[in-house]
Amino acid sequence: MADELNRRDFLKAAAIAAGPAVISAQGANEKVNIGWIGVGTRGYAGLDWLHTAAANEVQITAICDTYQGYIARALDRMQTVWGNKPKTFVDYRELLADKSIDAVYIMTPEHLHHDMAVAALRAGKNVYLEKPLAHTIEEGFDLIKVWRESGKVCQVGTQNRSSALYKKAHELIQQGMIGDVHYVRAFWYRNSLPNDPAWRYVIPPEATPQNTDFNRFLGTAPKRDWNPQRYFQWRLYWDYSGGISTDLLVHQTDIVNFMLDKTLPKSCMASGGIYRWTDKTDDRDVPDTLSAIYEYDSKFHINYSCYFGNDHYGYGEQVFGNEGTIEVMNRDQLTFTPETYRGKAPENIKSRKTLSLGRKDVNQADDGVFAHFRNFILSVQGKEQPIAPPPIGQQAAISGHMATLAFKNQKKAIWDEAAQKVRFA
């Protein structure tokens, strides 16, 4: 019942989302002026991704970062790939004050998402926001409220929803190829050498307090003295990140919801810890090992696991139907296998052929991010509707936050739909 209510709420939200995208859209043939906030690891790569996705529809006219080294690197890339030199900013609010900017990409650490996106929407900008939607459930709902008031387009970076492979998986499931589904296993496994611990990104040797605005990076997080580990390796600390839950898990629970037309789980239990990267000099907060069990009202269960000490199985989702299995592995291979029932399969199931598809088979060159970027730009132009508006982004984020809260509190997290918050059992 709660799952059905959640679905109705989503449909209402989607209808609301459809209005602003058309009403406030750019002229269909005008180039969209982009301001880019955050040009670190993913943000820097995104400059190229947008060029691949929509070079003829946009121009990047401004970039912002709190580290001068990243700004210099991004300027060089912009001139090489895009052929222009955008304006630069350290304070994102100054970028947002530029009335010529139509839309912003926010590619910053998680704890900054809410304040930056809210400020951008209130400044009249359309927003592409990296996942998770926000650092807390409460921030996510506040952001949705501001978005609805703004009449602007907002896309959350859960790009699996734009993947042709996952769309094919959804199609096969809806056709009844695997029968009823009550169980999904999802996992993400990584490994690295002892001298390259997980999420210990390289700290530029030239980074100093003089060329890095550490206070702006901290935002509303607890104030600290200059700490390059926290700045460049922010995923390892609860102040700025939900760790595995909001970086990796959130992608996978979200795409399970998409494939199976689910919304929010009713409960989550989680356990794990720092098992792999235990050197006494490693001050990480977030676990490198996590398991989470989700239950939905509709007799449905997700078994999730993540470990940063072995990458043999990579990452993927396995959808176990009563009549067959669909697997999507490493975002580049989809397989369908019918059930055999120990050699006693009914003819209508036995006749279903196994299927194996790669990205090339569905005309896809990447993990879905190119199409996701393009969908956002075309939505701003009024030609499409965003695939992952904030209500969808919040559903994804809530699943991640539930795992974090269950792990931190060592209690079962239960989603209270009426109160729109987590309680514990």
Tell me the quaternary state: single chain
Q: How many separate helices? A: 13
Mean pLDDT: 94
Indicate the percent of residues in helices.
25-40%
Q: Low-confidence runs (pLDDT<50, min 5 residues)?
A: 1-5, 14-25
With strands numbered from the N-terminus, the spatial order across the biggest sheet is 14-13-12-11-7-10-9-8-15-16
Task: Report on this structure.
The strands form two sheets. Strands 14-13-12-11-7-10-9-8-15-16 form a ten-stranded mixed β-sheet. The protein has a six-stranded parallel β-sheet with strand order 3-2-1-4-5-6, with helices on both faces. The chain is globular and about 70 Å long. Helices cover 36% and strands 21% of the residues. The model is unreliable at 1-5 and 14-25 (pLDDT under 50). It has 425 residues and is α/β, with parallel strands linked by helices. The two termini are 20 Å apart. Strand 4, helix 5 and strand 5 (126-129) form a beta-alpha-beta unit. It has helices spanning 2-23, 41-54, 68-82, 92-96, 113-122, 137-150, 164-174, 214-218, 228-232, 244-260, 347-350, 369-380, 390-409; strands at 32-37, 58-64, 87-89, 103-106, 126-129, 154-156, 181-189, 267-273, 289-296, 300-307, 315-321, 324-329, 333-338, 355-358, 413-416, 421-424.
